[in-house]
Specification:
The complex is a heterodimer of chains A (321) and B (390).
Chain A lengths: L1 H11 L7 E6 L4 E6 L5 E6 L4 E6 L6 E5 L4 E6 L4 E6 L5 E6 L5 E6 L4 E6 L4 E7 L4 E6 L5 E6 L4 E6 L4 E7 L4 E7 L4 E6 L4 E6 L4 E7 L15 E3 L5 E5 L5 E6 L4 E7 L4 E6 L5 E6 L4 E6 L4 E7 L4 E7 L4
Antiparallel strand pairs in A: 1-2, 1-28, 2-3, 4-5, 5-6, 6-7, 8-9, 9-10, 10-11, 12-13, 13-14, 14-15, 16-17, 17-18, 18-19, 20-21, 21-22, 22-23, 24-25, 25-26, 26-27
Chain B lengths: L1 H16 L3 E10 L19 H18 L1 E10 L5 H11 L2 E5 L2 H8 L8 E4 L16 E3 L4 H15 L3 E6 L3 H16 L3 E7 L6 H14 L6 E5 L19 E3 L4 E2 L11 H12 L5 H20 L4 H8 L6 E2 L5 E4 L6 E2 L2 E4 L4 E5 L25 H6 L1
Parallel strand pairs in B: 1-2, 1-3, 3-4, 4-5, 6-7, 6-8, 8-9
Antiparallel strand pairs in B: 10-14, 11-12, 12-13, 14-15
Helix pairs in contact in B: 2-9, 5-6, 9-10
The chains are: A mainly beta (321), B alpha/beta (390).
Protein name (chain A): Membrane protein
Pfam families (chain A): YNCE
Keywords (chain A): Signal
Chain lengths: 321, 390
């Protein structure tokens, strides 16, 4: 339905109206904007240094970009591509998550072992929370009560109460956690561990470990199977997990925690974003400098799109009104 | 503001983690006379190795904050000509976990001290093959790669490039000889042809004479694809490149160098580690720093994961399949159960870039590809580990 509408709009109006996938290019200091219908790069927008995490405000009127080496979170107008202002982010922001209140941004400061909470309206730091070394993965529960920061070298998930902005629990995960997400309406927290080669699933209410997923691809040494970014389908039934230098995305049954399939993508696959109706998945492939488009239903890579050097983060910008 | 929050965090953790456990690590450095070298370009940092141990400790302490662990590092320096064993006894009286910068024979003597029985020692600087072979000790682990691991890495690279005819120039120091021996063994292991070999005998000052002397010196070597230099004290090797009779790349101790760590390593999150080190030590992170860092971080992982501080239990966990350390080199690091050597990728670097990282693709191993580098279980004559672990 939405797709049809987009098609009609695209025909009727300018070609810039289709949904877009925004990709940060870590070593080019740019964003590549991909037309989610034609798979063409329609714009390349300059950013601060070493852009990594990227997320949109709830109404998509603003895009937040972690410009890690500029020590800033940049706020951009996605229509004009102009930087409106910087947010005080703390040093070396790598990843962040926008609270459901659409206002508080929780930022992992990789070099400082701190999670910074910024009010995007007043542009002030509300709190700084000491966490483990190299914080990176950031997740927020759908009800907004809990934010999780994972620290890559300390190998922990730190559970933060968003009322008090203080840690209320710390749970160990396997080596080098990279990405965290609350899934299934917040019932579970998933954390990927790059060097450990696993996904750990926690019961969010008790912070108890519930399951652990490992990976195995014939002909690829287990040390190369390094889960990083992942996304679940909206029904919570299927997870797609980027396996870094294994150059594959794993398809996981999110109910049984069994791996069902492995899809070959570009080299050192990092993160990913769905299009609006979740029929397509776009993965950033760091070393090959491209984006693989996966047909979600068919579980097949269908297209490779050349972007900038070392694409890292990805986010959807739906454009139909 | 931050102080107040930190206090809050600590209060929460103290509640959940219970009583504080104190873990003491000793860093023992036995100063050795440095051989004279031609160039004054590379002064040895006073805190070489130690700065890595300090950083590792700070990282352990950050994790420890959430785990009810209190980490302490005590530093012992034995000056040149001092009594290394007395220094070791002092260090062992304060800590049962030691990271040591000392030559091979001193390491063995320390490991054999009655006071070292039941202690866990880490060799962070000595690359000698013997320590991983028949001269191994059950209470001594190695985080610095051996000469053989480094030369195997380089040999894999040369095979990959099909630069299979190699010539070798060897310096006069024992370290040079050890590196040359390892290089020859690697050449045999990976089927490179050693077509020529010469000993460096000059006593001239190469800063002035390299362009005149080196072409003649290398003229009578049979044709080769690459010229290897064994100059581990970094005396003459730097003057060889671009002065050879034949236009050939130079590798080994100079130019293209296999190292456990280098300031040019930046992938796999290494940029973060480099940044933290630079901020703390105000200089680049060198292989000895990395090895000391890895030793301290090994203990951090072991105490956190094995859930105790008892030395035997830590050792058993570290040598088990369950142990892994994120080492910013793309693969998890672990220890070889047969000789206590830390398995690790070896970056092959120039001063400006990582050219390749070993193990290179295509070099297979039935267990772990990292074991294509250095002494594999069937080749090692070390028995101390099998005796204690089985």
């Amino acid at each position: 339905m939405i797709r049809t509408m987009t098609a009609i709009l695209a025909l009727a109006a300018s070609p810039a109206i289709a949904d877009e996938i925004w990709v940060t290019n870590e070593k080019d200091d740019t964003i590549s904007v991909i037309d989610a219908e034609t798979f063409e790069v329609t714009r390349t927008i300059p950013t601060g240094e070493r852009p990594r995490g990227i997320t949109f405000s709830h109404d998509y009127s603003r895009v937040y970009i972690c410009a890690s080496d500029s020590d800033a979170v940049q706020v951009m107008d996605p229509v004009s591509g102009e930087i409106l202002h910087d947010l005080p982010s703390g040093e070396d922001p790598e990843q962040f998550v926008l609270h459901p209140d659409d206002r508080r941004l929780y930022i992992a400061n990789e070099d400082d072992a701190i999670t910074t909470v910024v009010d995007t309206e007043t542009r002030r730091v509300i709190a700084q929370i000491d966490v483990g070394i190299e914080p990176e993965g950031m997740a927020v529960s759908p009800d907004g009560s809990t934010v999780v920061t994972t620290s890559e070298t300390t190998n922990m998930a730190h559970w933060i109460d968003t009322q008090t902005e203080a840690i209320f629990a710390n749970t160990l995960v396997d080596s080098r956690p990279r990405h965290a997400e609350f899934v299934k309406d917040g019932a579970e927290l998933w954390v990927s561990a790059e060097i450990g080669g696993t996904l750990t699933i926690f019961d969010a209410a008790t912070q108890a470990e519930k399951a652990k997923i490992s990976f195995e691809i014939k002909g690829v040494h287990e040390d190369r199977l390094q889960p990083v970014g992942f996304e679940l389908t909206p029904d919570g039934k299927t997870a797609f997990v980027a396996l870094g230098p294994a150059n594959h995305v794993a398809v996981v049954n999110a109910e049984t925690y069994e791996v069902e399939d492995y899809l070959l993508v570009g080299r050192r696959v990092w993160h990913m974003a769905f299009n609006a109706d979740h029929s397509l998945l776009f993965t950033t492939n760091g070393i090959s400098g491209d984006v693989t488009v996966i047909d979600v239903a068919a579980r097949k890579p269908v297209k490779t799109i050349k972007v900038g050097r070392f694409p890292w983060g990805a986010a959807l910008r739906p454009t139909e009104g | 503001m931050r102080k107040a929050l930190l206090a809050g965090v600590l209060a929460v953790c103290a509640g959940s983690a219970g009583a504080e456990t104190t873990i003491r690590i000793g860093y023992l450095s036995v100063a050795q006379p440095a051989p004279p070298v031609l160039s004054n370009l590379d002064p040895r940092p006073d805190d070489l190795g130690l700065a890595g141990a300090r950083l590792g400790l700070a990282e352990n302490a950050t994790t420890g904050r959430f785990m009810g662990q209190d980490w302490k590092l005590s530093e012992t320096v034995v000056p040149e000509g001092g009594d290394a064993l007395a220094g070791a006894r002092t260090a062992l009286a304060g800590a049962r976990l030691l990271v040591i910068d000392a030559p091979a024979s001193t390491l063995q003597a320390i490991a054999d001290l009655p006071e070292a029985k039941g202690a866990l020692l880490f060799n962070a600087t000595a690359q000698d093959g013997e320590l991983r072979d028949e001269g191994c000790r059950a209470n001594l682990l190695h985080t610095i790669p051996s000469h053989a691991m480094r030369t195997d890495a380089l040999a894999q690279f040369l095979v990959g490039r099909r630069w299979t005819d190699v010539a070798l120039i060897e310096g006069p120091h024992p370290e040079d000889a050890a590196f040359a021996r390892a290089m020859s063994a690697s050449a045999e292991k990976f089927r490179l042809s050693l077509v020529g070999r010469k000993d460096w005998r000059f006593d001239a000052d190469m800063r002035r004479n390299a362009s005149a002397e080196v072409p003649l010196f290398t003229q009578d070597l049979d044709d080769h694809d690459v010229l290897l230099i064994a100059d581990e004290v970094h005396d003459f090797g730097r003057y060889v490149a671009y002065n050879t009779w034949l236009p050939r790349p130079v590798a080994g101790s100079e130019e293209l160098v296999p190292e456990g760590w280098s300031p040019v390593v930046e992938q796999w999150g290494a940029a973060q580690l480099q940044g933290r080190f630079e901020e703390a030590a105000a200089r680049d992170m060198l292989p000895e720093d990395y090895a000391a860092w890895a030793a301290v971080r090994t203990l951090g992982e072991a105490v956190t994961r094995a859930g105790g501080t008892e030395t035997d239990a830590l050792r058993a966990y570290i040598l088990s399949d369950a142990f892994e350390l994120g080492g910013f080199k793309g693969s998890p690091l672990s220890y070889r159960a047969w000789n206590g050597q830390l398995r690790q990728p070896i970056p092959i670097v120039t001063d400006r870039a990582v050219v390749a990282t070993a193990p290179l693709e295509g070099f297979m191993h039935q267990g772990n590809e990292l074991d294509t580098l250095g002494l594999d279980a069937p080749e090692s004559a070390c028995t101390a580990f099998t005796e204690t672990s089985q």
